[in-house]
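Per-residue structure
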Amino acid sequence: MLDSLWVISLYIVLLFFSIAGGIWYAAYYRKRSRWESSGVENSIVGIFGLIISFTFLQAGNAHRERYAYLHKEANSADALYRYSRDMPDSFRLYTKKMLQVFLNDQLAYEQSGDIRFFYDAKKQSDTYWANLTALKKQGYNGPVDKIEEYFDQLQDTVSLFAYSNYERTPAFVIFLLVIVSMLIGILVGFMNGVREKIHYMVPVIYFVTVSLTMLVISDLNNPRLGLIKPSYYHLQLTLEYIRNN
């Protein structure tokens, strides 16, 4: 829901006008009536804090999950290459080349988003499995079993990581957060504008805090386009290790 820059920009503008609208209505209200606090205003703000904390936590957990997939993928590729050393030299070199091409293509995909990476990876996978099956028939059961195990883990984690990049906080939760933040913006503006002397510090702090928080949630929700992306350093180190050994 907040996946694009123009939507975020529109939200920030609407948030600003919700606060300004609250201040304007307070000035209008003050001329006609006397405001008496009901005592529940702080509770309403507290409920909003719980909603935004829940959303922030959910987006942060998804970000950590992506990191876990990357580390597991790098470890699986490293173990796969190490076990391939127990095989004939021709197969070790074939595994080395396959892993280099695969990791290079994945790192390029993370930059470009070109989905042809998945089709090429599927072809590489089918070819590699065929070679493993042929070697198993030749009696290399022990090493081949381990290689099959780590190759299977490598494929699983790559798929899980790729699809985790497209997982989002439920749209209804984001919609609820947007609506509630606007309503609280009106309340913050009104509560500070209804006094004899208007204080702008609280509305400004609310506006800046909520805007930045929503920007961070949006980035965590959309690592393909946002500024907060998982680090691929572990994958790059694994690629360098395979390339140089």
User: Anything to note?
Assistant: The mean pLDDT is 83. Residues 151 and 160 are 14 Å apart (CA to CA).
